[in-house]
Amino acid sequence: MRVVVMGQAAFGEAVFRRLREDGFDVAGVSAPAPAGGREDPLWAAASSAGVPVIETRRLKEAEGQEAWAALRPDLCVMAFVTEIIPHEVLELPRLGSIQYHPSLLPLHRGSSAINWAIIFRRTETGLTIFWPDRGIDTGPILLQRSCPIGPDDTVGSVYFERLFPMGVDAMAEAAALVRDGKAPRIAQDHAKATYEPPCRDEHAAIRWHEPADRLYALIRGCNPQPGAWTTFEGQRLRIFDCRLTGEEEPGMPGRVLRVEEGSFDVRLNGGVLRVLRVQPEGGKKVGAGEWAREAGVAAGYRFR
């Protein structure tokens, strides 16, 4: 079966390589064009293998669409696609297109599915391979796989430790089901759907008065992007790696309790936040204790 892969980054590259290993005839690839002297991993892998590559944005234009159709694909496998692709392009392959989404649809439609699952303090998420239609993540489901969200998980840990490797396996399995004529089309229950916007700075502001578990979930759900933030001397300070302890200590929420070599502790409503890694505005990520000492932050200072 002739497949084309539409995607980008390490996930797109991994799916491309897996399909070839599984014996699929990968006839072409679409990926973001090289920028700043750097090639996208999927673009680089396809070029190295001698597989034709079309810039994804060109699929919005007649010339690019004609080149895509000329590949004569049976199936399009969409692995991490952020561009809005015309539906007509997705219908070009003889058997249509299938797409990866990192949630258990119809929950968490949209581009920040992992972020919001953690921010909403869910204990389970997963992935869906579905048949895209004209809506946003609304098409029929081909297959789903679930995984836990641990109490200290971040977007990075859930994705790289679970949803990435599970997703590569699921995309290969889904393509095989299509090839063998066994791929279902299970309608989503739209009454149970949730949709959240892209998780951006406007959603990532830390409100120190909120309950500890809610605040901790926000920080984890914004790590590594966009980075939950508070302010220090009028500038944003992003908090990344941290841990919520079960301790109860007196003081106002946001008050620094102690500064240690690799961390500083902040009193919350319902616990203590041990901050391990931060990023000052305009700077790089650094150890939290190092930043606090250099910034002159000591026990008693209060973030607001």
Written description of the protein model:
With 304 residues, this protein is an alpha/beta fold. It has 2 domains: 191 residues, 3-Layer(aba) Sandwich (Rossmann fold); 95 residues, Formyl transferase, C-terminal domain (Methionyl-tRNA Fmet Formyltransferase, Chain A, domain 2), CATH 3.10.25.10. The chain is 27% helix and 25% strand. It is built from 8 helices and 15 strands. A hairpin with a 2-residue loop joins strand 12 and strand 13. It is elongated, with a radius of gyration of 22 Å.
What are the SSEs and their pairings?
Blueprint: E1 2-7, H1 9-21, E2 25-31, H2 41-48, E3 53-55, H3 62-69, E4 75-79, H4 87-90, E5 97-101, H5 113-119, E6 124-130, E7 141-148, H6 155-179, H7 212-221, E8 228-232, E9 235-239, E10 242-245, E11 256-259, E12 264-268, E13 271-275, E14 277-280, E15 286-287, H8 288-295
Parallel strand pairs: 1-2, 1-4, 2-3, 4-5
Antiparallel strand pairs: 5-6, 6-7, 8-9, 9-14, 10-13, 11-12, 12-13, 14-15
Domain Formyl transferase C-terminal: 201-294
Family: Belongs to the Fmt family.
Organism: Tepidiforma flava
